């Protein structure tokens, strides 16, 4: 007899495991700065990411391979790529960074995925004419 004695067969669940874990993880991030003052260009943004890693994880963290795939200076938004083994280190370092050029700042992690395509579009930001 099945669950609760009703004669129903128990639901069959199939477990699927990825054969190979993703090599990289992608993060869509936004840097929040107070109004006024200089905005970082692409090189300065990358340096800020490396600085965040160095402050929390030392030189080993600063050596973590992180790529800035896209960066929009207007919105201070970027898509970062990091090897999967360094994903948590990068996220924690960005979260705990508090200053840029002696001004308060904060990184906001908007999306993460092991698949770049998942970050290519956000329906919440879709503008319809």
UniProtKB/TrEMBL annotation:
One GO biological-process annotation of the entry reads:
tRNA 5'-leader removal
Q: Which UniProt keywords apply?
A: tRNA processing
**Could you name the domain of life of the organism this protein comes from?**
Eukaryota
Example GO molecular function: ribonuclease P RNA binding
Q: Which InterPro entries match?
A: Pop5/Rpp14/Rnp2-like, Rnp2-like_sf
Can you supply one Gene Ontology CC term for this chain's record? nucleolus
Q: Does the keyword 4Fe-4S apply?
A: no
| Protein's UniProt name | RPP14 protein
Its source organism is Sylvia atricapilla (blackcap)
